[in-house]
Automatic annotation (TrEMBL):
GO terms for molecular function: DNA-binding transcription factor activity, RNA polymerase II-specific; transcription cis-regulatory region binding. Residues 26-85 bind DNA. Residues 83-124 form a coiled coil. This is Homeobox-leucine zipper protein. InterPro entries: HD, HDZip_class_I_plant, Homeobox_CS, Homeodomain-like_sf, Leu_zip_homeo.
Length: 229
DNA sequence: TGATGTACGTAGGTTACCTCA
DNA sequence: AATGAGGTAACCTACGTACAT
């Protein structure tokens, strides 16, 4: 099967003459295996990372090597392979980490923008009351229509998706409003916002989330901020 | 049946040599 | 020509396993 020429065996023949009892310091004629030998060994390693004793003898014979040389080559090969595998794994983990870090920064900025928008809305809600009216920048369509009582918060362009989400608040939603705004208290959108700490979104807490399902909206079919629509 | 000794294989680390920029 | 870095064959050590006694 494997043809091993004298030329192949020659470069290391002097090395193989070194007996097991010879100290390595005296092994000054160490030679690398030939390309053909390496090729054969690599091929075998690909299919089997460990050699059975019988196979080892056969390979050694075919490649004109000592069985011990074959065994040592496989030992070293396994060690090198494991080392490279660790490097590959590390690279993958590094890439995943960078990806998650980028997502985190993106979400952080998005959250900050939302907090600002909520602050603006909160101010707009408070302002009319202070001025003794409900119609203003935050207009209530039908604000004079107590029966229907459909309160609409008009959104300006800066409101983004919140403008959409805050579209209609009917009086029938008083229960919902109570839940979110507190019993009988005036609406305070900021109460919906977590304290301005990053305890939940800090990297240390990432481990507790499945990143892929972090914002999975498949359950309800619409974004969480659309709870009022 | 459990304890002990021996042989063998492996992983992990190290040494010594070779090659090349 | 000298040299330092990297690759690699060979070795060492510790440990685990199988087997015989």
């Amino acid at each position: 099967m494997l043809e091993c020429t004298k030329e192949m065996a020659e470069p290391f023949s002097s090395a193989t003459e070194v007996t097991a009892t010879t100290k390595k310091k005296k092994n000054k004629n160490k030679r690398r295996f030939s390309d053909e030998q390496i090729k054969s060994l690599e091929s075998m390693f690909k299919s089997e990372t460990r050699l059975e004793p019988r196979m080892k003898l056969q390979v050694a014979k075919e490649l004109s090597l000592q069985p011990r040389q074959v065994a040592i080559w496989f030992q070293n090969k396994r060690a090198r392979w494991k080392s490279k595998q660790l490097q590959r794994d590390y690279s993958i983990l590094q890439a995943n980490h960078d990806n998650l870090a980028a997502k985190y920064e993106s979400l952080k900025k998005e959250r900050q923008a939302l907090v600002i928008q909520l602050q603006k809305l909160n101010d707009l809600i408070k302002k009319p009351k202070e001025e003794g009216q409900y119609c203003g920048q935050v207009t209530a369509t039908n604000c004079n229509d107590g029966d229907k009582g459909e309160t609409t918060v008009k959104s300006d362009s800066s409101m983004g998706r919140w403008g959409h989400s805050l579209g209609v608040l009917s009086d029938d939603n008083s229960e919902i409003k109570t839940d979110y705004f507190g019993l009988g208290e005036e609406p305070n959108l900021m109460s919906m916002v977590d304290p301005a700490d990053d305890s939940v979104t800090s990297p240390e807490d990432w481990r507790s989330f499945e990143s892929d399902g972090l914002f999975d909206q498949s359950n309800c079919g619409y974004p969480w901020w659309d709870i009022w629509s």
